[in-house]
Each structure stands twice: as C-alpha cells, then as structure tokens.
Amino acid sequence: MKTLADLPIVTAAGLRPDARALLRPGELTACADGRRHRLPHSFLEVPSWAAARSTPLSPHFNLSELMLVDCREHDELLHGWPHYVPCSVFVFASYLEAFRRKVGASVYIAANGGYRSPAHQRAGVPGPHCWGCAVDIYRVGNTFLDAPEAIRKFAAIASELRSEWNVKSEHTDDHLHLDLGYLQWSPAGFDDA
Amino acid sequence: MTKNVPIQEIVDIGTKAGFSALAVCFYDYARSVSFDHQGDRFFHAASTYKAAILLALYDAAAQGAVRLQDFLHVRNRFISVADGSVFRTNARRDGEPAVYRSVGRCLRLSELARGMIVRSSNLATNLLLDHLGVERVQEFLRKNEIGGIRILRGVEDDKAFEQGLNNEVTAEGLVQLYRLLCSEHFLDETMREEMRQILFAQEFNRMIPAQLPGSAEVAHKTGEISTVCHDAGLIFTPNAPPYALAILTEATETIKTRKKAVAAISRLIFKFLRPEEAAAA
Q1: pLDDT tens-digit map of A108-157
Q2: Which residue of A42, A74, A133, A162 has the fewest C-beta atoms within 10 A of its own C-beta?
C-alpha cells in the first residue's frame, strides 16, 4: 500500500462506503468559479486526531490544522473514522509554508478554514476548500485579521509572493482567504485506478 | 393563599426604587399555587432569554439535531436582523473572556451553553442562536406553549435595537420556562438536571439569591440593560419542593439600587412562601 507520511493513500474503492457517497471522488461537478472540476480522487486515510496532530505537512503546519472542521461537517464524516483528506494538502502546505516564512510569524487557520468535504454545510457550490487547496487565515502572529487594513496587508504579501495564489480579501471581514484553485495530486508511484 | 401575597410591600419596594414598571410571577410546587402581578406585561428581555436558548439547545439535542459534545467554530461575526449588515459582539461588554480567546478555533456546544448562562456570554449566545436558528428556538417555545417569550435576534444587534426589534419576555413566560425544568413531560431527568446544574452555577448572584438564607439554592439567569433589570429562576430549599420566580423591572434611567430592590422583593416572597425556613435563617 502506498503511504505518505506514514498514512495510507486511498482512492474511491478504498473509501468507507458512507464516506465514498459523501466525498464523490472524481465526480465532475459545477464549482464556485463557474466552471466544472473533478472532485479529489486520492486521499490520505487519517485514523485519528492524534495521527493528524503528529503528521507534519511542512515545518510549521501539521495535518490537523488543515482538516479542523466543526459540527457543520456531515455527521458521518465528522464522527466516523478514518477521516479522509485530499493528498493535495501536501502540495498546498508547501505554498503555505512559503507564506509563513515571508510574514515571519505564526499563521493561524480558522476552524472550517482548511479542507472541508463537499457535504460540509458551508461547502455550498464546491470551491477550493473541497480540494484541500484553500485556507481561511484568521490571525498572523498577534494580528487578528478582522479589520480591512490587516486583511489587505497580508493579502498583498501573498499576492507578491506567488502568482499561483488566488487571494480573496475584498469580500471577507474576519479572515484572509488564500487558495490555489482546483489542484489534483497523486504522489509518484501511486496508482489512481 | 395567594390573596395574602404581600403585594403592597412588593409594589412599595418598586416605587421606592424608582421603577416605572414592575412584574412579579411565581409558581410554588409546595402548594401548587401561582401568583402574578403584571405577569403578562412584556419587557425587553435583556439576557433572561438566554435560558430559553439553553432549553432549546437541549431540546434539539434530545431530538438528535445537535450533539452537546460537538464542536462549533467560534466566529465573532453576525448578521443583523434589521438590515443584513455584519456586527460583532464587544469583548469588553462580555462576562466570559474565554469565549473570545477561542475566536478562530472551536468550543463544544456544552461549553458555549455554560458560558452563555454562567457568565452571560453574549458571543456564546449569538453562536448558539445562529447554530440552532431563531426559528428552531421559536418553535421550541411554541410547542411548549410559552407565549410570554419572544425571540427575534441575538445580542448586541444595535441596528435591530434602534428599529425596536427586541427580544421580549413576561414574568409569566419566564416562570413557564423554568417550570419545564421540573416537568416530567420535558426531556428526561438527566438532561433537566444538567440544565439546572448550569443555572445553579450562575455567577451573577446579586438579585434573587442575594438576601435568601444560605440553604436556598437558586438556578437562575439575570438580565440587565440600561433601563431594565430582571432575574428569574427556580429556588430550592432543603425542606420543600422548589418554586419558580420571575421579577422584571423597568425604569427610565439606570437606577443604582435596582439589584438591591429585586433582592428585597425576592426575600419578601421567600418569607411568604417559606416562612419557617426564613425564620430559622
């Protein structure tokens, strides 16, 4: 079995049946950008919160930070284990790490602000959060991003850092949204079938 | 029996304090009697309605709509019922700083419920009301036939306040609400006891409990804004079943001694309903 950071990687066939129905792996779906994209098809299988907390994605971010959801997540995905998170979080975390290096301070991701499933109440029309390629940052260092100046400041830093960042700062007032769009990623040597 | 209620003394306390309106209602389980003075008059609810959210939350949990141990994202961002604009609660006006320290992260529904009651957290209240939905809380009140509590919105929705869109309560409505906590027909005893324990842990105790003997235990929720000052709850004593009591007051301006006046009214009612225990104290 292929693993990443000691966690098994699974595709549709390897998901729990109830989770497969909710995650809809590989399904072509209308998305928040007005286009159609295929939902993630390869996932890390996370057996527990302890495992999520002890799995580093980059020097300053661990898996649990990118998968923290509240009770708005679908009950079966919230309470049933294992949990599943798209493999793309590994790629995404490297971008996030670069942002953290640039700002030189801790970057805090809000609950529901990392990966959320297409069945999450806040998912609505699926967007990059459902691909594990988006974060809502509510705090950088000691600065809470609940004022336009603070949000704009860190949005500008992200935009200047990498052109791949999709930065949304105009329509938020208590966080900075960063995403990479709709990234599908399977590690080398992994069979997507 | 209720004709002997010292209503003139109660009214005199209110008049002396400068209240422009005073309502009192109680139901005594020891004698199965009730009494009210202006019991159906609506007042601005202030924070008294948070007790209704507590009961609605447990009702939702009993129906499987929520799990009390589940986590909820603590986000200080709410939508005004007046015009859809965004507003935030003010940490400096909130009795429970711990909820603000969790902004961005999660707290359990049970933790928020406790913060909402014990230290009257406005942020916890708005989070729970948002999560449950105003309609669910209203439906809870409707199905339990509590017409004396009207809930429209969360706390610190200043634009709604300016438009007169306020939560309102009557003394009768609050007494009906607290009586649910003693009713075999409302949820199960474990849940009722959990809610009573949260209300017993109330830290704002300068009104109903303030002048009662130490043996009296009060499960209650206060409510204060500039012009109103209320308290309502259940009073338990060692030798008798409890009684439910609501004391609601209103004035044209903030009165410094208003809490003492409510406490004095509570003591008068205690002496009337539990004379032996009052004498022994």
Answers
A1: 999 999 999 999 988 788 999 999 999 999 999 999 999 999 999 999 99
A2: A162
Query: CA nearest B199: which of B70, B67, B31, B50?
Result: B50
The total number of residues shown for chain B amounts to: 281
* Ranges of H-type helices in chain B: 7-17, 50-62, 97-101, 109-118, 122-132, 134-143, 158-162, 171-180, 189-200, 258-273, 275-280
A vs B: CB pairs below 8 A: 40
How many C-beta atoms lie closer than 10 Å to residue B43's C-beta? 26
**Beta carbons within 10 angstroms of residue A145's beta carbon:** 26
Interface confidence, given as ipTM, is 0.92
Are A89 and A187 within 8 A, CB to CB? no
Query: How far does the CA of residue A162 sit from the closest CA of chain B (Å)?
Result: 25
pLDDT digits (tens, 9 = 90+) for B35-54: 999 999 999 999 999 999 99
B72-B75-B80 Cα angle (round to 5): 115
Alpha-carbon distances of A25 from A39, B1, B75, rounded to whole Å:
6, 71, 30
B-chain residues within 8 Å CB-CB of A106?
A: none
Query: Which of B66, B77, B104 has its CB closest to that of A111?
Result: B104
H or E element at residue A53: helix A49-53
Give pLDDT tens digits for A34-76: 999 999 999 999 999 999 999 999 999 999 999 999 999 999 9
CA distance B120 to B221: 8
Q: What does the pLDDT read at residue B192?
A: 98
Say if residue A191 is exposed, middle or buried (CB neighbours under 10 Å; 0-12, 13-18, 19+): exposed
Q: How many CA atoms lie within 13 A of B43 on its CB side?
A: 34
Q: Which among A166, A149, A8 is positioned nearest to A85, based on CA atoms?
A: A8
* CA atoms of A85 and A62, how far apart (whole Å): 13
Report the percent of chain A where pLDDT is more than 90.
81
Contacts of A70 in chain B (CB under 8 A): 70-73, 106
Q: How far is B66 from chain A (nearest CA, A)?
A: 8
Q: Residue B137 and residue A171: Cα distance in Å, rounded?
A: 30
pLDDT of residue B67 exceeding 90: yes
Chain A: nearest CA to B192, how far in angstroms?
Answer: 23
- The H or E element containing residue B228 is strand B228-237
The 3-state secondary structure of A129-168 reads HHHCCEEEEEEECCEECCCHHHHHHHHHHHHHHCCCCEEE
pLDDT value of residue A190: 77
